[in-house]
Amino acid sequence: MNTSYTIEEKEYLQRIGARIKQLRLRVGLSQEKLSFESGLDRTYVGSVERGERNISLINLNKIALALNISISELLKIEQ
């Protein structure tokens, strides 16, 4: 992970990743299936779920579409 992120920023990325994982598991998808459905690499999806990536809006949209939800639903995380 980029070391220029603050602790709070790293925690935010981890919360987003945990939310994606939660939603993925809720619909019964493996990381591999989510990566296939979203057109993203499986290792990328894993690193996003672990909070190791600052995911782009385009990729957030791809994941939301694969999960059949809106981006706003995907981003509902506790502050």
Structural description of this entry:
The chain is mainly α. 65% of the residues lie in helices and 0% in strands. It is built from five helices and no strands. The chain has helices spanning 7-26, 31-38, 42-49, 57-67, 71-74. The two termini are 21 Å apart. 20% of the residues are buried. The model has no long low-confidence stretch (mean pLDDT 94).
Query: Which H/E pattern describes the elements?
Result: HHHHH
Query: Would you report the number of β strands?
Result: 0
Find the structural class using helix and strand composition: mainly alpha
CATH fold category name: 434 Repressor (Amino-terminal Domain)
Low-confidence stretches: none
| CATH homologous superfamily grouping | lambda repressor-like DNA-binding domains
Average pLDDT taken over every residue: 94
Give the overall form: globular
What's the N-to-C terminus distance?
21 Å
Rg, Cα atoms, Å: 12 Å
Tally the helices: 5
Work out the strand percent: under 5%
Which range best describes the helical content: under 10%, 10-25%, 25-40%, 40-55%, 55-70% or over 70%?
A: 55-70%
Number of self-contained structural domains: 1
Largest sheet at a glance? none
CATH architecture: Orthogonal Bundle
- CATH class membership: Mainly Alpha
List keywords for this structure.
globular; mainly alpha; 0% strand; 79 residues; 65% helix; 434 Repressor (Amino-terminal Domain); 5 helices
